[in-house]
Amino acid sequence: MTVIQCISPVDGSVYAERPAASFDDAKAAIARVRKAQKAWAKRPLEERVSLVLKGVARVNEMADDVVKELAWQMGRPVRYGGEFKGFNERSNYVASIAHDALAPVVVEKSDKFERYIGREPHGVVFVVAPWNYPYMTAINTVAPALMAGNTVIIKHASQTILVGERMVRAFNEAGVPEDVFMNIFLDHGTTSQLIADGQFDFINFTGSVEGGRSIERAAAGTFTGIGLELGGKDPGYVMEDADLDAAVDTLMDGATYNSGQCCCGIERIYVNETLYDAFVEKSVAWVSNYKLGNPLDPETSLGPMANKRFAKVVREQIAEAVAKGARALVDPKLFPADDGGAYLAPQILVDVDHSMSLMNEETFGPAVGIMKVRNDAEALELMNDCKYGLTASLWTQDVERARRIGDELETGTVFMNRADYLDPALCWTGVKETGRGGSLSVLGFHNLTRPKSYHLRKQF
Ligand code: NAP
Hints:
Blueprint lengths: L2 E5 L6 E6 L3 H20 L2 H17 L1 H12 L9 H18 L3 E5 L3 E9 L2 E5 L5 H14 L3 E5 L5 H13 L7 E3 L4 H9 L5 E5 L2 H11 L5 E5 L4 E5 L5 H13 L9 E7 L3 H13 L19 H16 L3 E2 L18 E4 L6 H4 L6 E7 L2 H9 L3 E2 L1 E5 L3 H10 L4 E4 L14 E2 L2 E2 L4 H7 L1 E9 L3
Parallel strand pairs: 5-6, 5-8, 6-7, 8-9, 10-11, 10-16, 11-14, 13-14, 16-17
Antiparallel strand pairs: 1-2, 3-4, 4-20, 9-19, 12-13, 15-18
Helix pairs in contact: 2-4, 2-6, 3-6, 4-5, 4-15, 7-8, 9-10
The structure holds NADP nicotinamide-adenine-dinucleotide phosphate (NAP).
C-alpha cells in the first residue's frame, strides 16, 4: 500500500500522511459518484448554488484550523490569514452568473419550432489541485462544476494532503451529499490508470507542465475533456510614463508574495532605461523589508518555500545566473533565517539575460531578474521570448499603448497597472506550455458543460 506524506517545510517533519486508494477502491468510489450525478443535476440550480455557497461558508468557519494547517503544510505565514478573500470572491462571483451562464441559447421559439442549445453537465469531474494556493485553485473548478450539475472528485497535492479532505468535509457538513463531492488520495500511477480507463468525464489539472503532459498522455484515446492550467514565467514591463512607486509595490509583491509560489507571480521584469536605476534601487529596498522565518510566528512575512526541493531549484537558478555574470543585489545577511534548505531569502538579480534559466524557466520562488530595455519593441520581443504565457503586467498611463502591446503579447491575460490577480469575471487561461482551456467566467461554465442542441418541430 502506498502512503502519501506531507513533509512540513516548517521543520522537515511528517505533518500528515494518508494511505493511497487502490485502483479497485478508487473505481468503486467513482462508481458511487457517477450514480449520484443524475439526481444532483435534477435538483434546481438555485438549490445547487445555495448548497455550494453553504459549503464555502463552512470552510470559512474553519478558518483557525485552515490557517494553521496551511502554515504547516506549505509554509504560508499565519499573518496572511489563509486565502479566504479569493476563495470567497470566486465562489460568490460564479454563483452570481450561474443562471445566465447555464441558460440555453435560444435560436427560435415560434409556433412552428423551438430551437435552442442547452448546456449539460459532463458527469463526473476530476479535479487535480496544486499546493501553492490549495483552496483557491481548487474552488475555481469545484464551485462551478457542482453548480452546473456535475459531481466532483478531488485529488489534492501531497504537500497539501489535508486540503481536499477538509474542503469535502466542510461541503458535506453543509449539506452537499457525500457522493456528490468526494476526496480521494491517489498516487500518480493509479491516477493515470483511472484516467486511461475512462473513469472521468472531464479533468481539470492545475500544476506543472510535466504533470499536465502525463495527464494528457493518460487520457489519450479516451476523448475525456481536459483543462490544463500549468506553469508560467510572467513578465512585468515598466514604461517610461509609469507610476514608479506603484509599479515597484505591485511587481515586488507579485514576485515574492507566497514566497514567489504563484502561478501568475512576476518572474522577470523589463524596465525602460529612464526608470531602470530608480526601479532597481526601490525594489531592493522593498524586498529587504521582509522578515523570513517560521510561518507560525505572526511577525513572519515571508515563510519557507513549500518544500526544500523547490528552494533548491531557485538556489540553482540564482547560482547559474551569477556564474554567467548576473549580480544578486539583496544582502543575504538581512535574512539570517535562510538555512540553505526550505527557508530562502528573497533575491533580485540584474545583468541577467535570456540564456539564464532564471529568465527562461519557471522559478516559482522569491527571486526575480530585472533587465533594462530601450523601447516597446525590445520589451515585446523579450516578453514573448518564452515557452509560457499566463499573464503579462504592463505599467503605463496610456491605455491605448497597453492595448496595442497587449494585442501582440502571447499571453492568457493582459494586465495594465496591476498583476498577480485572478479576476473571476474574466477567463483564466494560458497559451503555449501554460496549457489550454479556461476556468471561471461564463466560459468556465461552458467548459464544465457540453452543448446539447434541441430542434423541436411543432407543425408540419
Ligand atoms: P505538480 O507537481 O504538477 O502537482 C500538481 C498536482 O498534480 C498535485 O496534486 C500532484 O500530485 C498532481 N500530479 C503531478 N504529476 C502527476 C502525475 N503524473 N499523475 C497524477 N497526478 C500528478 O505541480 P505543483 O508543484 O503542485 O504546483 C506548482 C505548479 O503549478 C507550477 O508550475 C505552477 O505554475 C502551476 N500552477 C498553475 C496555475 C495556473 O492557473 N496556470 C495555478 C497554480 C499552479 P502530488 O502532489 O501527489 O505529486
